[in-house]
Amino acid sequence: MTKDEYRKNNDPSLNHFYEKLLKLKDLMNTNAAKQEAEVRHRYMEQFIEQFMKEWNAQI
């Protein structure tokens, strides 16, 4: 996908988590980066879970 295609895309912003952000932890090379990426990955998963609960009014 080109930059222009991405900007014209009307998909929800949450898709960016699935298209890119949640894949980053598998791209880390050093042990320190892998550990930090794991922490941030879990944080993003928790954020998405909470966001979806609020979006669906399950709070």
UniProtKB/TrEMBL annotation:
Top-rank taxon, per record: Bacteria
Alphabetized PANTHER family for the sequence: HD_PDEASE DOMAIN-CONTAINING PROTEIN (PTHR33594:SF1), SUPERFAMILY HYDROLASE, PUTATIVE (AFU_ORTHOLOGUE AFUA_1G03035)-RELATED (PTHR33594)
Protein's UniProt name: Phosphohydrolase
Protein species of origin: Bacillus cereus
Lineage start: Bacteria, Bacillati, Bacillota, Bacilli, Bacillales
